[in-house]
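hi! just following up on the protien thing from before. the input was this:
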Amino acid sequence: MDNPAMPVITRQIGPCFAAEVEGVDMTKPLSPDDVAAIHAGMDMYAVLVFHDQRIDDEQQLAFSRSLGELEHAIGTSLRAPEEYRLPTTFADVSNLDKDHKVFARDDRRRLFAIGNRLWHSDSSFKPIPAKYSLLHARSIPSKGGNTEFADMRAAYDAFDDGTKAEVEDLICEHSQLFSRQQLGFTDFTDEERARFEPVRQRLVRTHPATGRKSLYLSSHAGGILGWPVPEARAFLRDLVEHATQRQFVYTHTWRVGDLVMWDNRRTMHRARPFPAHEPRDMRRTTLAGDQPTVTQVA
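and the predicted 3d structure came back as:
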């Protein structure tokens, strides 16, 4: 990796997507060729795994910014600004408070974050949802805590023509209120309810570079415009069940120093449980999307 001319190499590791990457050292600036190779790898695989990246916050930010514009993590969790452990250039998806202590088991900030164990797409509850997420492992628990990814392109491709026609023009409503209610978390203040007001997203998205269609699902999706709520939620549940069959899923077993990058437009993911008293320090940078999905045309 000390050779600056070392090519970026990708090797598929998932059943129909996801690849490991060699030839990238995130402690050093990326060349234009490196940037192009990483974007090409994302276009093909949707999830890229970089092992042994012993980087600090500034290096993670520099790597992320070389690939696109950052989305800031403001108002997306129940941490108050004075409780932030990390700057808003990071989404703090750890179980640690600002003093780096593990949250108590009944801490509402922890209970809200358990929603990350549901299948979701990052920031689908924002009018302009996220493009890439980049998650770096600083410390991991003794067991558990894997992240699973589902390929929403393959899930769409597996539909029959009738189902593709049915979902093509549907618009869903996404909110963190919906995902948390599935777990029985309803402890929201009036300010939080206003902040998590539902936004609209297309159910089928077309990738701008490849032209390939994919489902755009998330636990945050709690309604379909023009549908009765019970029917919409039953239908969405069926779609998630279809999209997360094992043949569409890659499971990442974390090692310290791993950085995993995924395309939120074409994948869902979920965190798996781990011992509640053990620290799991994961720091996510997020690249901003470029437009609302409801204005996209195929």
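The first strand starts at residue 9 and ends at 12.
The chain has eight helices and 15 strands.
cheers
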